[in-house]
Design goal:
The protein is mainly alpha-helical. 67% of the residues lie in helices and 0% in strands. It starts with a helix and ends with a helix.
Length: 85
């Protein structure tokens, strides 16, 4: 599966009823891929945010909702990589 497909499949599964992304969502995903953010970081961020919101009944309608979590988790991952070396 492709980077975009993996992310959209998880988003649709976790977002209660959303079945189509808007063009901006595809731009966001493409930017993550361009920045070489590992797929595991993006998927983990989506799962983390959705799990934290599970009981709050928040309706997430855009991939953009996850941008801050992806950015934070990618930054932490990069820092861990530097510390390993």
């Amino acid at each position: 599966m492709s980077y975009i497909t993996e992310i959209t499949d998880l988003f649709f599964a976790r977002s209660r009823g959303i079945k189509i992304l808007n063009p901006i969502d595809y731009v966001i995903i493409a930017e993550w891929e361009k920045q070489e953010i590992p797929l595991a970081i993006v998927l983990g961020s989506i799962n983390e945010v959705c799990s934290n919101l599970h009981e709050k009944q928040v309706k997430i309608e855009s991939i953009g909702y996850f941008q801050e979590a992806v950015k934070k988790n990618f930054k932490n991952w990069l820092q861990a990589q530097v510390e390993k070396n």
